[in-house]
Input
Amino acid sequence: MHKRLARARDMLQQKGLDAVLVQSPVNRRYLSGFTGTAGTLLITDSKSILITDFRYTCQAERQCRDFMVTECREGLWDSLNSLVREYQVKKLGFEDDFFTYRQYIKMRENLEGIEPVPLGEELNILRAVKDREEMGIMRTAARISEKALEHVLPMIKPGVTEREISKELEVFMIRAGCTGPAFDFIVASGWRSAMPHGVAADKKIEYGDLVTIDFGGKYEGYCSDMTRTFVVGKCSQKQKEIYETVLAAQHAALEQIRATLRGCDADSTARSVIEKAGYGEYFGHGLGHGVGLEVHEAPVLGPKSETILEPGMTVTVEPGIYMEGFGGVRIEDLVVVTDNGVENLNNFPKELMVL
Output
């Protein structure tokens, strides 16, 4: 946590701020380690304060060794007002992508003499590069996901509903140590597999269906995210062609991705393979996104992303082809960017499986 706080303070200096106010659960946890549901951080160039209520003071003192824990008794804004006056805070950074308008008004009304400064993505970007501890947690989360998918493979057959598969994945992952799903699982079969975000429904799997499964769990606060696509019973030539095109696109991107590459160049590498095969119009989303405490976070791998990849960034690589009325294929791995390439956290086979 000490290194994370140091990076937050570097940001304060760069933006000329006296302090930053943190209320979003993910940034609060990232910077302090606090996992309770009620808490506010105030970070200056020399002080780290966590304001919480009676329910969480004991928990906060155990979890947040780098923070002074203050119990809020007279109301949050009164407590904050006392602190900003004590530490002579004038320019106060806040999470404008998290604050509601009502919270902003309360801040202006209750904090005397401060100038609120919107931070945009500045705090969120701090989370983009993972440290050794975070990567270890995410490796475990990825392993649980793969075991869960292996567990449900025998279920993927005609007559079984998408929702039944989704629930079995979730139950297995919780029993294996996850606290719950990282997002609503996508289990999309047949014509529904052409829906990139086709959340599991009551549709029954049929003979000859493509079945796309996109899922992940939360383990110690961090997310996993992977996708595999299967064919049930018998594979047509077109299904095979589309699958092999998507797989070739993913392989090309995985070979190209490394530190110093731009997000748009990673996307272009995969997209060009799909376009050359004649399916460019059917790949309508970006190549990938960062994963961490949230399943979608910085950086972005997409056509407009100028982000320069750095070692330790953890991103998905998930090209796809989706044809309405026919079906779709997506293959997704979660990888860690390194100086020389990537470390793939997913080892589940990617050769076309006909179940």
